[in-house]
Design a protein that fits this description.
Elements (H helix, E strand, L loop, with lengths): L1 H5 L1 H53 L5 H11 L4 E6 L5 E5 L5 H10 L13 E8 L7 E12 L5 E9 L1 H51 L14 H36 L3 E6 L4 E4 L1 H13 L9 H13 L3 E7 L2 E12 L2 E11 L1 H36 L6 H32 L8 E4 H18 L3 E6 L6 E4 L1 H17 L6 E9 L2 E8 L33 H11 L3 E6 L5 E8 L6
Parallel strand pairs: 12-14
Antiparallel strand pairs: 1-2, 1-5, 3-4, 4-5, 6-7, 6-10, 8-9, 9-10, 11-13, 14-15, 15-17, 16-17
Helix pairs in contact: 2-3, 2-5, 5-6, 9-10, 10-13, 11-12, 12-13
Length: about 600
């Protein structure tokens, strides 16, 4: 029942029913009032005509018997109408009463002396009175009283008092009321019928639209309403279908833009975080998630994931509606931070922050400056020597041809050293830019190392160092590599090992196989490299306190070139301390299963 009253059908039915009921109520009141006045007026006119007839009959039958007059007048009066003829003194001349309560009624009428005391011809008096009932004892009813004055045959004035019960008028009014109620009932039935008929024409399409709207709210944008009418309901269905299509298009467009924005944020190398007005995080990309995890341990303000320096910048950007940019060092990392406020119309609704990690850039800048300083330092010594000895020759400072030749030899050696330095710089620059070319061919590792031992055997003898090869692998073990480039690597490693190994020491080459890799090692028994310097020995121009003095014409770029060559072979190079003394360099190359 509640569902019906909450529906359009119930509201439409109740509205029409109330409207019809209100109209019928007003019409009934007006109609009953009109009918009551009309019937009362008709009764008055009827009583007046009957009174005039009675007065005429009484005058015409003057002197005849009273019974004959009663017979005639009784035929004129109906059972609810009675009459009394009185003179001005209240003496009843004739009484035409056919019902009970005659004495009580006449007594009541005679007590109203204004009805007949001073009659005037042509001036009837109409009055309503409460008199005893004509049919029931001890019951009072409402009567319509008419006093009709006339002149009797004797010349005296008399009055005909007509009194009629108003039950007849009330019965007529009641019949009219019943008809009105019957009409109201019929109107109720018709209203209900037409209301539910309209529901099939109006509310049924609306219910379908309601169901379609719920489907749209669930994301089913392919919902379509049939357009069976050309009226407003049909136009509404057409508009609904157009709305569904437009909504689907807009949702798809928003989805594409969201996916595009998500892809852009995901592919960005910078960390992006969007904040609400209360500084809570609304959106972040994967780089920002990693950054927040990294900052978690650094952040002292545990109730917010941002470091206090960044949080102060965020507060300033949102509070003062200003873009804030700064470069900060957080946890040993350098970041360029840019925070811009976000607006919703004229109100600030948050901010977006972009974090760019500049740590590598700082390292590169430092490496660049160190590289320039190292190159300048490496070039300063040979240039100074070239300049000094050349000036000595020009100024003819030498006293003998032997001294002059010695200076020329020094100038030649230093120029060769500068040439090697420039060549190594060009090589390492070419390798780091990706322009190194490798000519890979199957190569026997054992044969290669035997050849390297043979190549440096004389140098080792001159330095009084024992150079040997130790291996348990089969001679047929092959790697796919550029032999010339590998020779460049091991030439540098073996030369360094011999130069930094004291007399009586040893340099050992080895071959080992582990996890699909072939490890070629060069170990010496020299003074070794300090543990703290081992991770940095492959950097350009890096100098250790003891081992990396690089005498005898070294450029300081050999190990950096060796590292690039090994990485170009998809391998690696590692420096570790020996078991007792010295250093072990491990060069790892991938084994090719197709040739082994």
């Amino acid at each position: 029942m509640i569902r019906i009253w909450n529906s359009i059908v119930g509201k439409l039915w109740a509205t029409i029913l109330l409207l019809v009921s209100f109209v019928l109520f007003i019409v009934t009141l007006l109609l009953l009032e009109f009918l009551d006045n009309f019937h009362t007026k008709q009764a008055e006119e009827s009583l007046q005509r009957e009174a005039a007839t009675i007065s005429k009959i009484v005058n015409d039958r003057e002197g005849q018997s009273v019974n004959s007059i009663h017979v005639i007048i009784d035929d004129i009066l109906d059972k609810e109408t009675n009459a009394v003829v009185v003179d001005p003194q209240g003496i009843v001349l004739y009484s035409f009463h056919t019902a009970n309560s005659k004495e009580e009624i006449e007594e009541k009428l005679l007590s109203e002396r204004n009805l007949f005391k001073t009659p005037k011809i042509g001036q009837q008096i109409v009055k309503e009175m409460i008199l005893p009932s004509l049919t029931e004892n001890e019951v009072m009813e409402q009567y319509l009283i008419l006093s009709y004055p006339y002149e009797a045959a004797s010349g005296e004035l008399a009055s005909v008092l007509m009194y009629q019960s108003l039950d007849a008028v009330h019965r007529t009014t009641k019949s009219t009321t019943n008809i009105v109620f019957l009409s109201a009932f019929i109107a109720f039935i018709l209203t209900t019928f037409f209301a539910f008929f309209l529901s099939t024409r109006i509310t049924l399409p609306l219910r379908k639209m309601k169901q379609a709207a719920f489907e749209l709210s669930k994301g089913n944008f392919d919902t379509h309403l049939p357009v069976a009418q050309k009226d407003e309901i049909g136009q509404l269905a057409t508009a609904f279908n157009q709305m569904g299509r437009q909504l689907k298009y807009n949702i798809e467009l928003i989805k594409q833009e969201k996916e595009q924005l998500s892809s852009i944020l995901t592919s960005m190398t910078d960390a992006v975080i969007t904040f609400n007005q209360d500084y809570s995080i609304l959106l972040k990309n994967p780089q920002a998630e990693l950054l927040l995890k990294k900052w978690y341990g650094y952040n002292e303000k545990k109730n917010h994931p941002l470091p206090k320096e960044v949080f102060h910048m965020l507060e300033h950007a949102i509070s003062f509606s200003e873009q804030v940019e700064d470069e900060l060092e957080l946890g040993g990392q350098f970041y360029v931070i840019s925070i811009s406020p976000l607006y919703s119309e004229n109100r600030i609704r948050g901010a977006v922050a972009v974090f760019r990690d500049m740590t590598e850039q700082h390292k590169l800048d430092k490496l660049r400056s160190d590289f320039i300083a190292n190159v300048s330092h490496e070039l300063r010594t040979p240039i100074s020597m070239l300049q000094g000895y050349s000036e000595a020759i020009i100024d003819d400072v030498v006293s003998s041809e032997e001294e002059r030749m010695e200076m020329v030899q020094i100038i030649h050696d230093e120029s060769k050293r500068m040439s090697r330095l420039v060549t190594d710089l060009l090589n390492i620059a070419r390798m780091e830019s990706g322009h190194i070319q490798l000519h890979r061919e199957p190569l026997s590792a054992v044969d290669f190392l035997n050849r390297m031992v043979t190549k440096f055997s004389q140098v080792a003898k001159d330095a009084e160092v024992d150079l040997s090869l130790q291996t348990t692998e089969l001679p047929s073990l092959l790697v796919k590599a550029d032999e010339d480039r590998l020779e460049q690597v091991f030439t540098n490693l073996i030369d360094n090992a011999i130069r930094h190994t004291p007399n009586g020491g040893s340099v050992t080459l080895g071959i080992y196989r582990s996890d699909g890799m072939l490890d070629l090692t060069v170990s010496d028994t020299g003074v070794g490299i300090p543990e703290k310097d081992l991770p940095f020995v492959f950097e350009r121009f890096y100098k250790a306190d003891k081992a990396r003095t690089r005498g005898k014409g070294g450029t300081g770029l050999g190990l950096a070139i060796a590292k690039n060559i090994m990485e170009a072979h998809n391998g690696s190079i590692l420096a570790t301390s020996g078991e007792v003394t010295g250093t072990v360099f491990i060069c790892s190359l991938p084994l090719d299963p197709s040739i082994n």
